[in-house]
Amino acid sequence: MFYADHPPLEIVGQLMIATLFLGTLLINAATKERQHVDRMAAMGIPLSRATLWAGFALQAAGGLMVAIDWQAGLGAILLIVFTVLASAIFHRFWTMEDPLRRHLHLSFVFSNIAVIGALLLLI
Questions:
Q1: Which residue among 49, 83, 86, 119 is least packed, with the fewest CB closer than 10 Å?
Q2: What range defines the domain where residue 101 resides?
Q3: Per-residue pLDDT at 2
Q4: CA 82 to CA 22: how far, in whole Å?
């Protein structure tokens, strides 16, 4: 049975982590696909649409594995890979001249580092 050996707070935490990934997946796939494809193409990411959907698949697989506690460690690894790649593509703070945008994207990177830390606790 899933979550059989987890204390209640661990279950809640794991579900919250999964919700972050599955919720942003739904929003991005449903409403921001074109925006992301255009940004990726402008950055020179090859096969932008296919690359984006491969990322969505990685996010979905890892998020669902963590959510249902099936191979959660492997799911966490998938989500770590997704987070590192998404950060490298979308949060290139070092390329931004505007100090406010640079700070905003650096903050996203720091937040993603914390998310990776939470995912490491699931492995």
A1: 49
A2: 8-122
A3: 87
A4: 12
